[in-house]
Amino acid sequence: MNRIDRLTAIIIYLQGRTYVTVEDLSERYGISGRTVYRDLAALQEAGVPIGSEPGRGYFIVKGYHLPPVMFDRNEASALLAGERLMQKWNHTEIGKSYLSALDKVRSVLPPDEKEYFEIQDEHMQAFHYKNEHLPQPDDRIFVWMQKAIFKKEVIEICYESPYKGEKITRNIEPLGLLLKDNQWYLAAWCRLRKDYRMFRLDRFHDFKLTGKKLPDSSDHTLKEFHARNLDKERELTEVTIWFKQDMVRLIGDSKYHHGWAWEKEVDDGLEITFLTSHPEYLARWSLLWGNGAKVLKPESVKEKAKALVKELYEHY
Fold first, then answer.
1. Considering the domain boundaries, does residue 134 fall inside one?
2. Where would I find the HTH deoR-type domain in this sequence (predicted)?
3. Which residues are 269's β-sheet partners?
């Protein structure tokens, strides 16, 4: 991206946010903090009313706007690809809003770009695996949670525990919505457990505002939640499993869902190394392949697999 395009992009980025930090701009455009300061100074010298507030960041003075910005074909195509990914949620409020926004994008495209967009539309499709056994989240919940996060209020939830299958009631501080493994979660601070937790949206049975406002500068943030989770992910166990050659094709992409790290071919099959924070679960998964798979290391996971086999033998 040349500097003129970057300066324009920075104005657009600032217009869409209340405050923006130097770190945000540095990471977004792949430039140093010094370059960010130079770019902001250049925009101010050109008459763009950019202000700053200590501890919060930079902002554009209210009332200033660039003329309407046109989308180029690559940007429009990227939005179209996003729409295909969103199709799974087309029946929800967020899905309907995305479709409405995309229609507005179509309406402002120049004739040549519109033709390109329509051809892409006809030749782009997404196939989603539908698991009928999984409950679907309430259509209202996603938008409701967005509003609760904006209101900065404690919410009371009735939630089905994934471990015991029982309903639990909690007062939580909502922090953000996360997409993980094709499921939506609410990241929150649990006031009972006094710790960060993730709650899957399709396990909510009820949810309501409590009227208890959160402070503007809360100690519990999505950034801290993310940092805590990164620390947990760093505590990974390296597990190597051998797979018989005729099993490799059957495994397919499922290996990527279990922490695939690398693999190497051997004379009688494939050795795959996983990095996982759930080694016991990986041991259980390895048993799906019968004598077509064998845990090679570490010893603790090998012993766990043996214990599971013994347990199954005694059970049957």
1. no
2. 3-58
3. 244, 266
Measured CA distances, 15 to 23, 26, 36, 65, 141 (Å): 17, 17, 16, 7, 29
- State the residue range of the domain holding 247: 237-315
- CA dist 160 and 148 (Å) reads 20
95 & 52 share domain: no
117 and 51 belong to one structural domain: no
Q: Which of 231, 162, 164, 159 is nearest to 188 (CA)?
A: 159
pTM: 0.56
Rounded Cα–Cα distance for residues 253 and 272 (Å): 13
The answer to whether residue 192 is domain-embedded is: yes
Place of tokens 């903090």: 33
Are 261 and 300 contained in the same domain? yes
Alpha carbons 46 and 185: distance in angstroms, whole number: 44
Encode pLDDT of 78-120 as tens digits. 888 888 877 777 777 777 888 888 888 777 777 778 788 888 8
Task: Say if residues 237 and 298 touch (Cβ distance below 8 Å).
Answer: yes
* Among candidate residues 209, 210, 139, 205, the one with its CA nearest the CA of residue 167: 205
Kindly state whether residues 175 and 212 are assigned to the same domain: yes
Give the CATH number, domain containing residue 27. Answer: 1.10.10.10
Strands (E), 183-302: 183-190, 195-200, 204-213, 237-244, 260-266, 269-276, 293-297
In a domain, residue 41? The reply is yes
Q: Nearest 5°: CA angle at 59, between 189 and 213?
A: 30
